[in-house]
Amino acid sequence: MAFWWPLLVLAFAYGICRFLLMLIPPKVPSIDVDTSDVLDDGNQQQENSFIYVPPRGTSQQSGKIVQCYEPATMKYLGYVPALTHDEVKDRVAKVRKAQKMWAKSSFKQRRLFLRILLKYIIKHQALICEISSRDTGKTMVDASLGEIMTTCEKINWLLSEGEQWLKPEYRSSGRSMLHKRAKVEFHPLGVIGAIVSWNYPFHNIFNPMLAAIFSGNGIVIKISEHASWSGCFYFRIIQSALAAIGAPEDLVEVITGFAETGEALVSSVDKVIFVGSPGVGKMIMSNAANTLIPVTLELGGKDAFIVCEDVDLDHVAQIAVRAVLQSSGQNCAGAERFYVHREIYSSFVSKVTKIVKSVTAGPPLVGKYDMGALCMHEHSEKLEGLLNDALDKGAEIVARGSLGNIGEDAVDQYFPPTVIVNVNHSMRLMQEEAFGPIMPIMKFSSDEEVVKLANDSKYGLGCAVFSGNQSRAREIASQIHAGVAAVNDFASTYMCQSLPFGGVKHSGFGRFGGVEGLRACCLVKAVVEDRWWPFVKTKIPKPIQYPLAENGFEFQESLVEALYGLGIRDRLRALVNVLKMLTEQNPGGSGNKKRND
């Protein structure tokens, strides 16, 4: 006891010191970002104060400039350039030059970059959310959930585990290579190209950027033409943080434009990450095939939300409505098909109907509204088309939310949350991605039936399963062909940033997030070296040296059995043969034998 007592005291003192050190915040520089042209203080210039009416059809997908406006109020925000093919090539070249320097940076410097960003984000949450709200129509709460929390969690995971997963990883060398050391190294790919969607303008920029920069890459991000105004401001935050750590100023680029801009990016980079529709994803794959670069595609979703008969109905009903209204009715989280057990179907419909009827949509920064506007001006027409198709085939609308004081000219960009029943899989609403605040609810009678229904989709991004029996919910979720699954929760998988994110089928392939997403930004290199160099080196055995000995193949047979034989007796016998042949005089190579033609 006298021996152990001092060790216990030292261990306790060490633990206390570690705890006290954790209480001391790290010294992180602050950054200043110009906000003079993004704050709506009522003193905007006259030319930027009018109501903007976006053109319909293909005319809005081309041109030399990208017009920006607030979806919730149609207030004009300004414009950004639509970069040409040559301009994109020039930006990529600058990033490539900067990346060669950044690849030599330390993980300490990379972590400081992340901490500076985290400090700014936490201090300026309201600003970041307000800008996202103005550019996409989402509420401040939805912006906080989808933009701030997810990004902070990503940064926190990289700070805690990022270096660990990018260090060389040692692997077993196998029986035949016991004298070797085997490892996997993770090197930067070079320049990553990301083409991201409009639904989360802040997070969709930061998510690929954080992984790319921390793994030693440069990155060029083509932001959506539907959320370019906010993206250009968020880029300033990144530039300020890079300057604060002395990183190359051209390491990150954010570019704006239409299809031509994206096509130029795909043809110029070393890897493409795309978030968007399946149709565009296929075109990106086709273009990437020309240069044979890797592609990660996160495409559409039609997630199943499954409710068994043994759940807490009040609890699940609230989650279900949140899943539908996520991100101001833009349904970015993907719950689009609701399957409810026949025994509780009526009760569930009644509860979600009550909640939805209490929801009001309106300009999120003007009043207290539960959901905001649709980001894209024409999207309400698509949603109405899906609803009308379902109604024509026998479906019934049982509840709709209300619209607030939105003005006479702002109807098109608002769509009230809608509960619709008596749906089936013959309806477009149950097959096509809606990306809107519509809750179609269908009955099921057994676990086998609901698994079949959930898998009856061309999409496979995610699913959510609710049951009072967690094992039952887990079993159902395991049978659904999707990339992510939440058991007794919704969308929680994305908040666990240690997990990969992505889908199957028309939802895409490849993963971002987690270890898999971080390493996907790397050249994964297998390396083998001598374990006891220079004392033990690889030497080709005599029987298989050139010219080959007559017993060369016999030697190989015995060697294979000695290494991999199933029985110990057979392996020992083979080993004796190997040793015998190694010690025998070389009977002469086959090349020395006279040929009789």
UniProtKB/TrEMBL annotation:
<protein>
    <submittedName>
        <fullName>Aldehyde dehydrogenase 22A1</fullName>
    </submittedName>
</protein>
<dbReference type="InterPro" id="IPR016162">
    <property type="entry name" value="Ald_DH_N"/>
</dbReference>
<feature type="active site">
    <location>
        <position position="298"/>
    </location>
</feature>
<dbReference type="GO" id="GO:0016620">
    <property type="term" value="F:oxidoreductase activity, acting on the aldehyde or oxo group of donors, NAD or NADP as acceptor"/>
</dbReference>
<dbReference type="InterPro" id="IPR029510">
    <property type="entry name" value="Ald_DH_CS_GLU"/>
</dbReference>
<dbReference type="InterPro" id="IPR016163">
    <property type="entry name" value="Ald_DH_C"/>
</dbReference>
<dbReference type="InterPro" id="IPR015590">
    <property type="entry name" value="Aldehyde_DH_dom"/>
</dbReference>
<feature type="domain" description="Aldehyde dehydrogenase">
    <location>
        <begin position="60"/>
        <end position="527"/>
    </location>
</feature>
<keyword id="KW-0560">Oxidoreductase</keyword>
<comment type="similarity">
    <text>Belongs to the aldehyde dehydrogenase family.</text>
</comment>
<dbReference type="Pfam" id="PF00171">
    <property type="entry name" value="Aldedh"/>
</dbReference>
<dbReference type="InterPro" id="IPR016161">
    <property type="entry name" value="Ald_DH/histidinol_DH"/>
</dbReference>
<dbReference type="InterPro" id="IPR016160">
    <property type="entry name" value="Ald_DH_CS_CYS"/>
</dbReference>
